[in-house]
């Protein structure tokens, strides 16, 4: 009986699946351990044991479905936002969409097509901001972007051609010297010539000192790549350091080149009839001796300095050498990068003298590169994000009235170029536009950048709060501070100014870009008025400074454009008066440095402006100024204003010539006290907000009263500030940044903070009709043509 029961139990056990297979609902072969448990690695618990329970596939599937639904929801939301953005752009007149594809063939990578489409649309939105291009019949081409200073466009016009420097063969130099000159700047790799051939051209010590003094008084006050003390110790001492005639045994060819170009720069300011020829002869010697050491084999600090000084010499004397300067400056920046000027040299254990020499040279090149890029309408060669070079010591610091230390001109110039000018170049040359509020933020940063009290320029001759320094070069440094800021503001506002006048010529001050109307108008008037005052105080030195007259030429173009296009504007009458006074001063003051065509250009502009205003006052509707111009008969103001244009050159001889910095008008501002609200009560609210934010509580028209160049706190005491930027209340940098030393890491952090403050990505959008090109499109509609 017992054996029968046991036999039945065994049969029942063999007939059932193991416990784990029953729990997992798997097929069991009932041979223990079963194959299912063996495959799953749990043979030791078969047939009676079970594994711990876990979440099943249904839970995982449910979670995956939930995530898929969230992805689909977010995708749909993105599509809705893109559609809304597209509708908003269309509502503002943005016609930047790419043309629809004519092909129905599917692409293997649809996501890539979407990315390319978005990029293409971004670029098309700014495609009109392309400036002017001059093309010769043989393919020669020359380009200036829309930001370029107006006089740079002038020599794109077919009838402009002038050369004011003597020919090399007229200098009386031997053929060996001319052969070396023709090898400049790359030099000769293998040459039989040597530096002793130049010893006979070195003047006596007294003569050299006189020309060096003229160089530092008339040229180096603006850009000083080699300070006087360094010049005396590293250049003059090796040549004249021993009794007897000058020697070249202990000086390299590139240092000798620095010596000759300094003499050339000083000689052109001598008061005699042969000054130009003597100056050009020394400059030829500088180029020739430079070619003895080929820069393709080795580069030195002296070599970079010599090329930079050659660029500055050409700027002072040669109206037709703009492209040569542009190329030489590009070479100069590349050579500077070869020797590592963009990296601070303190970490290389160099002596202090060499460290300061390298820092000074870098910041001179950087500042000139940034400014030249704006006035040429072409991107700069150096990016602020790619350097950690600290500022050199301020050897020209002065004490303010309250006993605090004020920056000298050069120290202020370096900090302004790093803080404001570099940001402006990013704005001007960005292919994708930026929000108008970002531009206004940049405007505020420029206006609030501190100027030391001794560098503040009078706006009028009878300014009771400021006066010109009795020394001419210091007075010109004062005007340089003003013109750098005002021209900077003029260029960043100019396209918005043009759009406002285009869209609402009857009352542009009611346009949403009305702040740019007043900012551009005010900057133009300040440039003219202040230079008028400076010319009355230092007429000889001012009349030779091409840079000053260049900025005012652009200012006159703006004033004339305002009157011609919008004669009913409240500002038109005063703009015309300022233009006329500027033209009068220009004719009598800019003779030593102006090009031949500039006076006729401004006369035509003044005549056109008078006709427009007279017609508006008589209630006569003149013919629209939006006239077309052919490549062979370009509209002169279209070119001067930087509008998108193509200019055909009729022959090989008239291949594109670069435009030089031309003079412009100078005059004095009228002293009025017209209440802003009474005169411009119908203006757009943005005008009130703009000037209110700048600290003008009375809302007085800015050109009629001293206005808005004060910064809370003034210039902080900074005996040796090696940081990158001053303490600007708008940039969110640490409050102590202005007056304390900074590490390289903190410098880079300051740069990043500053750039992020001015160009926050979350605010970036593309404004209607591309602001960077509006000025170019607008000014060409003014129909002043060359006779």
TrEMBL record:
Domain 4Fe-4S ferredoxin-type span(s) in chain numbering: 24-56
Official protein name in the record: Zn(2)-C6 fungal-type domain-containing protein
GO MF annotations, alphabetized: DNA binding; DNA-binding transcription factor activity, RNA polymerase II-specific; zinc ion binding
GO cellular component: nucleus
Cellular location(s): Nucleus
UniProtKB keywords: Metal-binding, Nucleus
UniProt KW GTP-binding keyword: no
Classification via Pfam families: Fungal_trans (PF04082), Zn_clus (PF00172)
Keyword Nucleus: yes
Lineage: Eukaryota, Fungi, Dikarya, Basidiomycota, Agaricomycotina
Region entry Disordered, spans: 85-107
Biased composition (Basic and acidic residues): 85-95
Domain of life from the UniProt record: Eukaryota
GO biological process: DNA-templated transcription
Residue ranges annotated for the Zn(2)-C6 fungal-type domain, each copy included: 17-46
Organism, scientific name: Coniophora puteana (strain RWD-64-598) (Brown rot fungus)
């Amino acid at each position: 009986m017992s054996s029968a029961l046991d036999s039945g139990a065994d049969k029942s056990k063999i007939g059932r699946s193991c416990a784990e297979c029953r729990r997992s609902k798997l097929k069991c072969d009932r041979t223990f351990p079963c194959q299912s448990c063996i495959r799953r690695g749990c043979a030791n618990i078969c047939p009676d044991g079970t594994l711990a329970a876990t979440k099943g596939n249904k839970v995982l599937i449910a979670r995956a479905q939930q995530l898929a639904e969230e992805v689909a929801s977010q995708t749909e939301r993105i599509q809705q936002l893109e559609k809304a953005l597209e509708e908003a752009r269309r509502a503002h007149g943005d016609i930047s969409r790419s043309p629809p594809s004519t092909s129905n063939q599917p692409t293997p990578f649809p996501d890539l097509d979407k990315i390319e489409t978005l990029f293409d649309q971004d670029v098309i939105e700014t495609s009109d901001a392309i400036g002017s291009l001059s093309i010769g019949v043989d393919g020669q081409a020359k380009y200036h972007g829309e930001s370029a200073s107006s006089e740079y466009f002038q020599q794109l016009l077919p009838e402009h051609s002038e050369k004011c420097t003597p020919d090399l063969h007229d200098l009386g130099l031997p053929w060996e010297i001319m052969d070396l000159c023709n090898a400049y700047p790359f030099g000769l790799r293998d040459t039989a010539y040597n530096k002793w051939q130049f010893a006979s051209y070195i003047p006596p010590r007294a003569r050299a000192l006189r020309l060096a003094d003229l160089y530092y008084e008339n040229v180096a006050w603006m850009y000083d790549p080699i300070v006087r003390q360094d010049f005396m110790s590293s250049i003059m001492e090796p040549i004249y350091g021993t009794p007897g005639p000058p020697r070249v045994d202990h000086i390299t060819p590139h240092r000798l080149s620095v010596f000759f170009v300094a003499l050339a720069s000083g000689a052109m300011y001598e008061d005699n009839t042969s000054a130009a020829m003597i100056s050009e002869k020394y400059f030829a010697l500088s180029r020739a001796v430079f070619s003895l050491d080929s820069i393709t084999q080795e580069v030195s600090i002296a070599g970079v300095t010599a090329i930079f000084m050659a660029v500055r010499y050409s700027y002072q004397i040669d109206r037709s050498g703009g492209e040569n300067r542009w190329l030489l400056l590009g070479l100069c920046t590349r050579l500077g990068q070869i020797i590592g000027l963009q990296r601070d040299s303190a970490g290389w254990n160099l002596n202090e003298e060499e460290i300061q020499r390298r820092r000074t040279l870098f910041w001179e090149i950087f500042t000139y590169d940034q400014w030249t890029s704006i006035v040429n309408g072409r991107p700069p060669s150096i990016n602020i994000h790619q350097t950690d070079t600290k500022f050199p010591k301020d050897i020209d610091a002065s004490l303010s009235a309250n006993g605090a230390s004020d920056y000298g001109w050069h120290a202020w110039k370096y900090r302004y170029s790093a803080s404001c000018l570099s940001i402006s170049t990013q704005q001007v040359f960005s292919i994708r536009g930026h929000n108008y509020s970002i531009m206004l933020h940049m405007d505020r940063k420029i206006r609030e950048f501190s100027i030391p009290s001794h560098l503040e320029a009078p706006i009028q001759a009878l300014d009771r709060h400021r006066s010109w320094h009795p020394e001419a070069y210091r007075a010109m440094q004062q005007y340089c501070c003003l013109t750098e800021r005002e021209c900077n503001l003029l260029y960043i506002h100019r396209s918005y100014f043009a759009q406002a006048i285009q869209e609402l010529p009857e009352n542009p001050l009611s346009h949403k870009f009305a702040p740019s109307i007043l900012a551009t108008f005010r900057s133009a008037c300040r440039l003219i008025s202040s230079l008028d005052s400076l010319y009355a105080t230092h007429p000889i030195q001012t009349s030779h400074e091409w840079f000053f007259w260049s900025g005012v030429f652009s200012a006159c173009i703006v004033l004339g454009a305002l009157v011609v296009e919008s004669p009913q504007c409240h500002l038109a009458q005063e703009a015309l008066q300022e233009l006329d006074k500027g033209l009068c001063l220009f004719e009598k003051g800019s003779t030593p440095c102006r090009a031949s065509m500039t006076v006729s250009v401004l006369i035509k502009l003044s005549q056109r402006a008078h006709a427009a205003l007279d017609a508006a006052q008589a209630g006569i509707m003149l013919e629209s100024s939006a006239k077309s111009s052919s490549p062979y008969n370009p509209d002169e103001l279209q070119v001067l204003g930087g509008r998108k244009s193509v200019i055909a050159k009729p022959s090989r001889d008239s291949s594109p010539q670069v435009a030089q910095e031309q003079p412009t008008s100078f005059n004095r501002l009228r002293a009025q006290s017209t209440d802003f609200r009474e005169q411009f009560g119908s203006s757009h609210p943005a005008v009130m907000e703009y000037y209110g934010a700048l600290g003008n509580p009375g809302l007085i028209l800015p050109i009629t009263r001293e206005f808005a160049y004060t910064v809370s706190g003034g210039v902080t005491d900074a005996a040796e500030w090696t940081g990158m930027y001053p303490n600007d209340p708008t940039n969110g940098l640490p409050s102590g940044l202005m007056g304390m030393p900074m590490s390289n890491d903190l410098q880079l952090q300051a740069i990043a903070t500053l750039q992020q403050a001015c160009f926050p990505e979350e605010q970036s959008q593309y404004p209607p009709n591309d602001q960077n090109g509006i000025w170019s499109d607008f000014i060409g509609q003014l129909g002043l043509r060359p006779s």
